[in-house]
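Practice problem: predict the structure.
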Amino acid sequence: MHTADLLTELTTHAPFAEYDAARLAEELRPFDVTPGQLDVGGRNRNGYRRGDVLRALERA
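Answer:
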């Protein structure tokens, strides 16, 4: 998922309202989740793999 799209979804929820790309990366780093180049809708975008984020949620 593209970072901007993920932030759009997250920031609608109170605990994440002030998150930006840097804060998101900082919070996910301890779970070994880092952004990278992804093919999103046929475009090369920077974002997170769904499976990586879901594993982080399971560990949180």
